[in-house]
Design goal:
alpha/beta, five-stranded mixed sheet, two-stranded antiparallel sheet, 14 helices
């Protein structure tokens, strides 16, 4: 147990401008000190000095949000040999308990001591860089989709001459035609032409951004985990999601922990004489979406996957249950590939 291995756990509630610390003695579960520091290197040094003074001996830091507000502190501590664990932020819905930064810091420490959490933070610089590229690409794709929907809606409400010219065009020809629109004597038509031309050029620019980012993502994935791209249904974007969530060998203690992170772990949902499981609705939803995308591709193109689904349906399982089993299998097999890549000669 952690209470036998550690003398102290330092819980940290992280925010943009400052972090709140709570030092909990492992044996007595008593809060023996607290501190609020600025979220910068000066504050990190102050936190480390405070921990060395008030929590001597074996200690672990339980930090919320090591992928966002707590990333700087986790990186700073890791570089100085401190043991750091990542704690999920609590869900607030339906609770009546008090809320303060000090309470949250104490809760983070107690959660780690209870054994309910504590994966290592995503401190791998290459995986974090890949995550930054993924987030930026997703933003470009999302804005591109929104702009395209706006453009199509404007075409529907445009003056008759413009609408008749544009509304039956394919997407590529529509963008080309809108990007060439020019002002005219009609004020309404001029306004619509400007709006459509702006949207068409914005869409083209966003697609160029996404293409550049996808090329860089693929290059990095081929350098970090080329074995993933040889798997059926795994493209560069899905592989990048897997690598950024996994981060580095040994961060997650088992393939079951990876499945839990991916929201692919089975959860009992039995009642009466019905015995079944359902998928976890938590975890890293970007990673879960990557598994789902791979599964959709395999169901179209992979005969073994199609045969498995058919066999499950013949056994009386629902399609959702078959998909749940497949996601769990995918999480297991892809995690093993990441942890133990094939040796190339």
């Amino acid at each position: 147990m952690l209470t036998d291995e550690l003398a102290y756990v330092i819980g940290v509630d992280t925010h943009r401008d400052e972090h709140t610390l709570a030092i909990v003695e492992a044996r007595t579960q008593r809060v023996c000190a607290g501190l609020v520091v600025e979220a910068n290197r000066s504050g990190y040094r102050r936190a480390l000095r405070h921990a060395a003074r008030r929590a001597p001996g074996s200690r672990t830091w339980a930090i919320e949000g090591t992928g966002s507000y707590g990333a700087g502190l986790a990186r700073f501590l890791g570089e100085r040999g401190e043991e750091v664990r990542e704690i999920e932020r609590p869900k607030r819905s339906g609770g009546r308990r008090g809320k303060s930064d000090a309470i949250d810091a104490e809760r983070a420490a107690r959660e780690l001591l209870a054994g309910g959490a504590g994966s290592q933070p995503r401190s791998n610089a290459e995986a974090q860089a890949l995550r930054a590229l993924l987030v930026t690409r997703e933003s470009a794709v999302r804005q591109c989709t929104a702009s395209l929907n706006e453009l199509r809606a404007l075409v529907i409400s445009a003056p008759g001459e413009l609408r008749e010219r544009l509304h039956r065009l394919t997407e590529r020809k529509l963008l080309e035609a809108c990007s060439r629109l020019r002002p005219s004597a009609d004020e309404e038509r001029t306004a619509y032409a400007l709006a459509l031309r702006t949207l068409a050029r914005r869409i083209s620019g966003l697609r160029e951004e996404a293409a550049v980012l996808e090329g860089e993502i693929e290059r990095r994935v081929r350098a970090l985990a080329p074995q993933l791209l040889s798997q059926p249904g795994v493209g560069p974007i899905s592989a990048a999601c897997l690598v950024s969530a996994w981060s580095y060998r040994g961060r997650l203690r088992s393939e079951a922990a990876f499945a839990r992170l991916a929201g692919a772990a089975p959860i009992p949902a039995s009642s009466g004489q019905t015995v079944r499981h359902r998928l976890d609705r938590g975890g890293d939803r970007r990673l879960n979406r990557a598994l789902h995308t791979i599964l959709l591709s395999r169901r179209r193109l992979d005969p073994a996957t199609r045969a498995y689904v058919a066999r499950r349906l013949a056994e009386g399982r629902s399609e959702r249950e078959a998909v749940r089993c497949l996601k769990r299998y995918l999480a297991r097999s892809l995690f093993r590939l990441l942890e133990n890549p094939p040796v190339t000669t």
